[in-house]
Amino acid sequence: MLRPSSCHTALVLQCCDFAQSLRCYTCREPTDISNCRTAILCPPKATVCTTTLHSVETGYPFFGNITVTRDCEEECNAYDGIGASKPKSCCYTDLCTDDRISSGVRSSSAALGLVAVVASAVLYCSL
């Protein structure tokens, strides 16, 4: 049977194994939103995925061609006020800038995995 100090050490080590960086879609040059689908693993300090709107082609018929850039950033400096020439939005979960889903509403698989590991370690240590 593990002593409490050994149990805490095992718990910390398990949590460290599951820690991972945020994943975001990225396109650093203005790209059609439907083509900006390259997923990357962000640097460790990046905590947010961003989307900057560059243009929306208008006219008749409206096809909805939207040009964006996307990237990982350390903090959210969103700006989408009236008159913004390049509105920017932020979200905080893996691949949350996917235009087919609501931003920020997805569960992070890393967070769910971490919860499972912590719960199993606590249960194991209490036995």
TrEMBL record:
<protein>
    <recommendedName>
        <fullName>Snake toxin/toxin-like domain-containing protein</fullName>
    </recommendedName>
</protein>
<feature type="domain" description="Snake toxin/toxin-like">
    <location>
        <begin position="22"/>
        <end position="96"/>
    </location>
</feature>
<dbReference type="Pfam" id="PF00087">
    <property type="entry name" value="Toxin_TOLIP"/>
</dbReference>
<keyword id="KW-0732">Signal</keyword>
<dbReference type="GO" id="GO:0030154">
    <property type="term" value="P:cell differentiation"/>
</dbReference>
<dbReference type="InterPro" id="IPR051110">
    <property type="entry name" value="Ly-6/neurotoxin-like_GPI-ap"/>
</dbReference>
<dbReference type="InterPro" id="IPR045860">
    <property type="entry name" value="Snake_toxin-like_sf"/>
</dbReference>
<dbReference type="InterPro" id="IPR035076">
    <property type="entry name" value="Toxin/TOLIP"/>
</dbReference>
<dbReference type="GO" id="GO:0005886">
    <property type="term" value="C:plasma membrane"/>
</dbReference>
